[in-house]
Amino acid sequence: MKHIFLSLGSNLGSRLNNIIECINLIKKHSKLILIDTSSIYETKPMYNTNQPNFLNAVVLIETNIKPLQLLKDLKKIESYFGRSLKNSHNNPRVIDIDILSYGNQIISFDELEIPHPKSIERVFVLKPWTDIQPNYKLPGTQKTISSLLSLLEINKDDIKLYKKNI
Hints:
The protein is an alpha+beta fold. It has helices at about 15-30, 65-80, 125-130, 145-150, and strands at about 1-10, 35, 40-45, 55-65, 95-100, 105-110, 110-115, 160-165.
């Protein structure tokens, strides 16, 4: 069984309910075991800043599903929420699920790169991740999540605690 960290984000509709329902769908998956969840944070959007604020969380799961099949299963959850995979890059979304890490592996496929290549620049990923495992060493960097977070310039308005316990 591999430990896998996932990032969850929502900035359309009932954002909190979207995150909670997404976690519930992960729990209901027959081959995914939910181990831990971070607090939920409200964050300003990156890259495309002309959109509503996001709610973000990180979850730790355990599974022996292979990475590409896991990606397909997570895309099915996104589709359940009505997310279209066309033109959805950096645009508003009901739910977004990213695979941040897959055990200690470094994985590179056309459709999937693990660790997630942009996780080290994203406060909305690193801050919730520190809630679960601040001393986790990101494969390929040998830096801990908390040390990666400390390298970012963070304005107090960039991220705010939204809900402590899910």
